[in-house]
Amino acid sequence: MHIGLCSPHWPPGEGANGIVSYVAAVREHFVAQGHLVSVISRNRSHSSDGTTLELGTGLLASSAYRIDRRLNRSPGTLPHIARAVGREIAELHRLRPLDIVEMEESFGWSAVVGRRIAVPVVTRLHGPHFLKPASHRTALQEREDRSRCEAEAHAVRSAPFLTAPTRAVMESTCDRCGRSRDQPSAVIPNPIKVDSHAPQWSLADCERDHILMVGRFDFVKGADTLLAAFGLLLDVRPSARLTIVGPDFGIETTPGKRLNFDAYVRANLSPQARERITFTGLLRPEEIRPLRLKANVTVASSRTETFGYVLVEAMAAGSPLISTDWPGSEELIVHRKTGLLTPVADPDAMARNLEWLLANPEAAAQMGAAGKRRCSDTFSVDLVGNRLLDCYEATIRAVA
Question: pLDDT, tens digit, for every residue of 10-25?
Answer without folding.
Answer: 988 766 688 999 999 9
